[in-house]
Write the structure tokens for this entry.
Amino acid sequence: MSEEIKNIDANDAAASTSSEVESTPAVTYEKKPYISQDEGGDKLYQRNLRFKRKVCRFCHDKNARIDYKDVKMVEQFITDRGKILPRRVTGICAKHQRGVALAIKRARIIALIPFVEK
């Protein structure tokens, strides 16, 4: 009796799948990883989340001095419009950023560098 039930269930399942396949087209959508595991990627999507830490050039090189009379050095810390660049852009520490800002302001006052570029 159990064999008859198995045969009936198998026939019903085969009939239902064949009728479903005929009535609806079989379309499958797969999500493809950006980096496949075979190519050496360990994650599906890798981003560069780490960045190289900027090191303060004045802390690194003890001979480098902040001097308002050194126009080449001062101009490295201002934009083409005359604004003082922030720490996150220049990569110098807070202590030396304050010194650079003071040097830029002193150089502006004695007209070594302009306040605003045109």
About this structure: Residues 2-23 form the longest helix (22 residues). The domain at 57-109 is CATH 4.10.640.10 (30s Ribosomal Protein S18). The helical segments are 2-23, 57-60, 71-75, 87-90, 94-109. DSSP finds five helices and no strands in the chain.
